[in-house]
Amino acid sequence: MSIFDDKTTYSLARLHEPLLAWYDTCKREIPWRGASSSYFVWVSEIMLQQTRVEAVRAYFLRFTAALPTLQHLAECDEQTLLKLWEGLGYYNRVRNMQKAAKIVMEQYGGELPRSYELLLTLPGIGEYTAGAIASIAYNIPVPCVDGNVMRVLSRVTANSADITLSSVKKDYQVLAQSMIPMDDSSNSPALQDRSSPRAGDFNQSLMELGATVCVPNGAPLCDVCPIQTQCKAFLSGNPQHYPVKTAKTARKIEKKTIVILMYGDQVLLQKRPNSGLLAGLWEFWSMDGWLNRDELTNALMEQGIFANAIHSLKKAKHIFSHIEWQMQGYLVYLEKLSTIGGGEWVKLTDLRENYALPSALKAYSKELERWVLP
Q: 49 and 137 share a domain?
């Protein structure tokens, strides 16, 4: 049984009207908004996963300038692709994009399919992304429900169901689907045969409201909300009680020592395994645990590495979804060029231009620039 009754669904049937009026006037100007290209919609939606809009702007412009079409993405070599994605993290996102792009080139003539169901068959495209592409690029009346949308709708309906449950999310998808303004000229039961000229705008209006007004942290800006008079949580005076969600499991803490090994104008990189966390990415040499100078010196000597100088770098941390790296670092100048298993010596100019390092090591990439790079 749905968490929303027919009365609730009926009461929201016209909510698109104030939402779209507000969206037309107040939406943010961002590079991909208004793009008719399904490719651009896809790129932006994948980038926006786990990343704020303001941070994505520059990455989107850089990526689409280098790879302006889906064919360019399909044909790009992996090292260039990862370099273009550098800074966004979660590199499997762009790897899956390339896998999907190759399938689209082979099976769909170079254009993302105009079908929600077919979009779901492509690597890296789930219900939310498929809904965004289908509605924004193709006007197909399907919802795209993310945390922003569930927060808005949970407050509008004052619904206390746990939004971390998949069954609850499904009910929000059904509710959002019912709210999309429809073109009544088609009675086809197939979504891809039906049209809603403002399906994409409606979905974006809910997301925009959640991102800028009905915000997750701190008090929502109810005084400027276009639907406050229809919002049960606002009328009850308790919008911050919603949404309800189960507390996250505590992240596992891992301590690491990051070592930037230098010889002349070269730095040592090592490649991570092809599966698991940060799969296949380049990184600085590292060791588990926190090592002091003496412990680091001994660990290097065991590898046949002798240091001319060791400089302490600042501590840093990086949070993954389930793990937190707590790091301390060293910059080490070597007496001679040493061969280290699994490592590759890279010129600093090549590192800057051609190698993508994970966002987890951003603090130490900056330290390298501060100490060494001109």
A: yes
Distant-in-sequence, close-in-space partners of 144: CB < 8 Å, separation ≥ 6: 127, 128, 129, 130, 131, 132, 135, 203, 207
Asked whether residue 108 is assigned to any structural domain, the reply reads yes
Domain enclosing residue 134, as ranges: 6-241
Q: What pLDDT was estimated at residue 370?
A: 85
pLDDT in tens, 50-60: 888 999 999 99
Average pLDDT, the chain: 92
Instruction: At 142, give phi and psi (nearest 5°).
Output: -125, 150
265 and 235 share one domain = no
Higher pLDDT, 361 or 374: 361
DSSP 133: I
* Residue from 143, 89, 133, 92 nearest 113 by CA: 133
- Pairwise CA distance, residues 67 & 69, whole Å: 6
Q: Give strand pairing partners of 328.
A: 257
Question: According to the model, what pLDDT value does residue 191 have?
Answer: 53
CATH label of the domain that carries residue 288? 3.90.79.10
Q: Is 246 within a domain?
A: no
**What's 70's domain CATH number?**
1.10.340.30
Residues belonging to the active site: 45
Q: Is 18 left (phi over 0), alpha (psi -120 to 50) or beta?
A: alpha
Nearest to 366 by CA among 326, 319, 313: 313
Are 203 and 143 a contacting pair, CB within 8 Å? yes
- The count of domains in the chain is 2
As a whole number, mean pLDDT of residues 329-341 equals: 87
Residue that has been written with the tokens 């974006």 in this structure: 204
**Cα 182-186-191 angle, rounded to 5 deg:** 70
Domain match, 151 and 271 both: no
Residue burial 290-309, b: 16+ Cβ < 10 Å; e: rest: ebeeeebbeebeeeebebee
Q: Is the pLDDT of residue 194 over 90?
A: no
Percentage above 70 pLDDT, the chain? 96
According to DSSP, the β-strands at 323-334 and 252-263 are parallel
Q: pTM for the whole thing?
A: 0.86
